[in-house]
TrEMBL record:
InterPro entries linked: 4Fe4S-binding_SPASM_dom (IPR023885), Aldolase_TIM (IPR013785), Elp3/MiaA/NifB-like_rSAM (IPR006638), rSAM (IPR007197), rSAM_sf (IPR058240), Sulphatase_maturase_rSAM (IPR023867)
Biased composition (Basic and acidic residues): 466-478
Record protein name field: Radical SAM domain protein
Limits of the Radical SAM core domain: 98-319
Keywords: Iron, Iron-sulfur, Metal-binding, S-adenosyl-L-methionine
Cofactor field: [4Fe-4S] cluster
GO molecular function per UniProt: iron-sulfur cluster binding; metal ion binding; oxidoreductase activity
Ranges where the record places region Disordered: 464-486
Keyword field contains Signal: no
Keyword Transmembrane applies: no
Length: 486
């Protein structure tokens, strides 16, 4: 095999972080940790082409070093694919594509006892104050989930504040269990709550039904009380913190989701640290979607915090696991060889359902009439918007198809893309800058984790390099069948 400037440049993304060198093959998502010499070899080849790279490389090293690396590549089939196979052409999908639903988010209550300053749902009312989902609508949604769902399905209760309609939640859980038996499926339950109405009775119910709870809680007292007051402006920190402690002490599977205003991003690490010290073992931090556009400068603030977070995670991962959810996702994708064809399950395996049964791509689009994709009584995969999502994997999105880290991103939240850019397939600049930082520091963290711990937690032995080659099974999977998140 001769190598010349007519040999296509490999699609490699080379980066140095924390004193380590990494090479990412963008077409497959294969990630390698390498030494400085191999790093320079890959960098020169990707930037200059093969012949010019050789000349540049031997200026710093030697011809024998070059030949040794070339021979290593030629002798390994997987490396030959990385270095010598051109980027495969991306062909459009033809015809109707179908998927399977894995989760429905039910707006069981479109009203809220909080008045969060950044709420995208008109204070939780979605412009229809005090609207409760009826048992009939909820049960028809469950029927749809069972009929169109995967073997394991999830029923999520959302709002507004869903615990304002706790009796309906109890009724729907029992109905879902009954239907799961009839359909020979496994059903799991989750809820997103502000935590204010969590009582011992509610906790008993969560434990009895193995609920996963996402607690919307924004952090230290001044942040929580500013961002998430009760209607009327009254503080909420004391009650939410007390109820959070109670759930943690009683063993509820509870994670925290904090929404951070743009002007609070300089406190990103402080907020993360608050939750770790509080006792949470799953912490998700998300910038608020507001009228203030998020920029690369905001991303720099988050990356500065991320460097500290990574060090904390490395210190406590054997005791607490990886607490920061986005880092845990990256580590899991590196370990399990996952290529993220889509950013999430939006309009493919996950849908939001309003109180009246109208279906939307996800919970964040509820109430936006231009994004209606059906009704629980009349759901069809042929819906134009659903087909648009299914046909546009990250490799088929104009803004993302040549991004070097697309395998780990999937294209960004389509709600945020629409909100900031008016285009569901055009990520905002903050997201892109943040994802580059996350991939870099996630790679560094992965390379420092104990292999036995990884095998125990993720139950699969890694293959060569840092990131295994894409498996034959993954290569043949249709995009709608590929696991896209942890």
């Amino acid at each position: 095999m001769k190598v010349s400037n007519t040999t296509p440049k490999p699609e490699l993304y080379n980066f140095e972080v924390g004193g380590k060198y990494f090479v990412l093959h963008s077409s497959t998502g294969t990630l390698f940790e390498v030494d400085k010499k191999t790093y320079d070899f890959c960098r020169f080849v990707a930037e200059l082409g093969w012949s010019d790279a050789r000349e540049r490389f031997v200026m710093e090293y030697s011809e024998s070093d070059w030949d040794s690396l070339i021979n290593e590549i030629k002798s390994d089939e997987s490396l030959r694919r990385v270095f010598f196979e051109p980027k495969p052409p991306v062909k459009p999908y033809l015809g109707i594509m179908k998927s399977k639903i894995s989760s429905l988010s039910l707006n069981v209550m479109e009203d809220c006892n909080f008045a969060c300053v950044y709420c995208y749902g008109d204070s939780g009312t979605y412009h229809t104050p005090n609207t409760r989902m009826s048992p009939e609508v909820g049960k028809r949604a469950i029927d749809l989930l069972m009929g169109e769902g995967k073997k394991v399905v999830n029923l999520q209760f959302f709002g507004g504040e869903p615990l304002l309609n706790f009796p309906l939640i109890r009724e729907l859980v029992q109905y879902a269990k009954q239907k799961a038996e009839e359909y020979d499926k496994v059903v799991t339950f989750s809820i997103t709550t502000n935590g204010y109405l969590v009582t011992d009775k509610v906790i008993d119910f969560f434990l009895e039904n193995n609920f996963t709870v996402t607690l919307s809680f924004d952090g230290p007292e001044d942040v929580q009380n500013h961002n998430r007051p009760l209607r009327g402006g009254y503080p909420t920190f004391d009650v939410v913190a007390k109820n959070a402690k109670k759930m943690l002490e009683r063993g509820v599977k509870v994670s925290v989701r904090a929404t951070i205003l743009p002007e609070q991003l300089d406190r990103y690490y402080e907020i993360y640290r608050f939750f770790v010290d509080f006792g949470f073992r799953s912490v998700h931090l998300e910038p608020a979607t507001t009228s203030t556009p998020l920029t690369k400068e905001h991303a720099k603030l988050v990356e500065s915090a991320l460097k500290k977070i990574v060090m904390d995670e490395l210190e406590h991962y054997k005791e607490k696991g990886i607490v920061y959810t986005k880092l845990r996702e990256i580590v899991h994708m590196i370990y399990s060889n996952t290529y993220r064809h889509y950013p999430c399950g939006v309009a493919r395996s996950y849908f939001g359902v309003s109180a009246d049964g109208t279906m939307y791509p996800c919970h964040r689009f509820v109430g936006m009439e231009e994004f209606v994709v059906g009704h629980v009584d009349d759901f069809k995969w042929e819906n134009e918007f659903i087909q648009k999502i299914l046909h546009h994997t990250v490799d088929r999105r104009p803004n993302c198809s040549n991004c070097p880290i697309r395998a780990y991103c999937g294209g960004g939240c389509i709600y945020n893309n629409h909100y900031y850019n008016g285009d569901i397939f055009a990520p905002d600049e903050f997201h892109c800058a943040y994802m580059f930082a996350l991939v870099k520091w996630g790679s560094w963290l992965y390379s420092n984790l104990d292999e036995d711990w990884l095998n125990k937690v993720f139950s699969r032995s890694p293959q060569r390099g840092v990131r295994a080659e894409e498996s034959d099974e993954a290569k043949t999977q249709k995009p709608t069948e590929v696991i896209e998140s942890v």
